[in-house]
Amino acid sequence: MAIKACTISKDYKRGTHIQQRLSSKSRNNSYIQAALLCFYLECKDIDNAMYLFSSITNKSNYMYTVMFKGLIANNVAEKVFDLFDEMKIEPDQFTLNILFNACAVLNNNRAMKIGKKLLDEMPENYRNHNVMSTSAINMLMKFGDVESAKRIFRSIKVKDIITYNAMMKGYIGNEIFDKALDLFEQIDVKLDDVTYIVVFNACAKLCNDRAMKMGKELLAKMPDNYRNHNGISTSAIDMLMKFGNVGSAEQMFRSIKTKGAGIYGALMNGYNLNGESWKCFKIFEEMNEKDIIPDEIEWNILIGACSKSGMLRHCHYIMNQIPLNIQNKIRIQNALVDMWGKCGSIEKAKNVFNLVVDRDTITYNSMINAFGLNGMGSQAVELYREMSNNLRDHISHICVLNACSHAGLLHEARTIFNEISLKTESIITTMVDCLSRLFMFDEAQKLIDDYEKTHTPSIVMYMSLLSGARNNRNRNLSEKIYKRMKILFPNAKESLVSGVILLSNIYSSLGEYQEAKNFRSNQLEELGVKVKVGLSWTEIKGQIVQLKAHDHSHPQSAEIYAKIDRLKSKAIENGFIFDSSWITRSLNENETIESVLCGHSELLVIALNLIQEPVPKFIQVAKNLRVCGHCHEFTKVIAKIEQCDIVVRDANRIHHFYPNGQCSCQDHF
């Protein structure tokens, strides 16, 4: 039939032309009416579909099913219920199935009321129909009614794989991941492609020993005909990346013959998760070479890679290739505000922010956070005040309090904190951090004590307190906090390791190197966790270069250290004093205070930039730990000596070092 051909090809012009030439008799033919409904809905002409449907006098269940299905596909599921309210015939199994789907899609009060009523009134002969039961399970799981979904599942006499999949997907949607794996172990029918996707997703969410074992075993046993399935491969790569098995994920990616954009997205997202964001740009180049067009999800992942790398060149490179229709989507705009903020370009972040027409909570939070990261606390507070109360959420409060903390704005922080009616653990932690940075330990401790009267203690609060005590070189308080942390959080090994480093650094800053060494080695051995290696990276001639402290692996190492020596000499000539309190260990033979302090990774990558030709006037560095006090002071001196701008993003914030020898943080770090 001609109309059906136009529906398949989505040839709207030809289809409407055929419709106009139909005789009145043909227009009243139910088969032709159904075909026209399919045509309009497929071509997204909702108005004509609704008009035609309203003109049909004898509407069958088939007509309703066609209409309901098309409205759901066009993201106007609410209209399904409007038509259902007018329905004068009892829905058959096909119509009922679509109605359950509409309820699951909408998932609002109206949908819940209609869905549960339909389920209660469903004829008995439908209740053992697997397709119906599966739709009902899916609907109930979307409502969050897990117990009712379980009752229906248990009532099914002969379960097929589609029913198992619906139940496992429901558990995942309700974040009951262990139950999904429990159910998977009970399956006694042949698995299909959806099963593999669902189980890999559950394993990726759990990421515990059981999930890793089960996920890897299922992947190893998976039939060859599924290994080129894009949906399964995408889920498997995502799972392996969540496990931290980057090599296995890359191997699987390379083995896939025909790759869709989603598989590239899963790999790039995995690189972001595993701290290898720079690899995303090579993958993006491969996508370009193979004419694979990224969709909104992939662009969002690439913007995230730029945010993590912290390098402006990557930002410009990606930004210049995002199509305008994608750039105008609010999710992308929000990501761009975040990206420019995290890469130190506050003006570009503001430009994107100003372009957003309907700003949502994430838009404001991203901009407030950008101000805070770049030491612009007053601007963050001002924007927070501009934000309407109905848009503010707990992230808004955290971002503005964090901005106050990094700018030393105690009065503003106190005022905002006191205005917040619901103070979450994270909000209180941020206020504790603000007070601790200003060495107001009694007030910070009181906040913790008040919180613990009604809540379980939070290790992050104690870490904020300990960090402030370290900056204050308050040995007694630091020891007291660390001992308390060990008692309260004996299994929080990674945080305790950070505590060990902070406390041993205090001993070192007081010249007690042997005590620092003994404490550090004994505690780390007891905890059995390795210390995170400090790394700094920069971009040289389009390539990311990453160095650690006292690194000699770079081909230009001799020139790097020669440049460091020249900078050191000029700094001393200008009266700079190298502060030994920032040395965290005793000196080895042939080492000096200057050589130990000047071997820190951020200084090495700054020197690497300064030996390039031509010598850059703008240098950008990112690192995975906080910048130490010595490096902060020395970088101010370097910027003044070299008359250049240096941007250093550490684990907490962004420092803009100017040619006048000042830093944007005004020493609040």
UniProtKB/TrEMBL annotation:
Residues 575-668 form the DYW domain. Transmembrane segments: none annotated. This is DYW domain-containing protein. Gene3D superfamilies: Tetratricopeptide repeat domain (1.25.40.10). It comes from Rotaria socialis. GO terms for biological process: RNA modification; system development. Keywords: Repeat. GO terms for molecular function: RNA binding; zinc ion binding. InterPro entries: DYW_dom, PPR_At4g14850-like_plant, PPR_rpt, TPR-like_helical_dom_sf. Pfam families: DYW_deaminase, PPR, PPR_2, PPR_3. PPR repeats lie at residues 160-190, 260-294, 360-390.
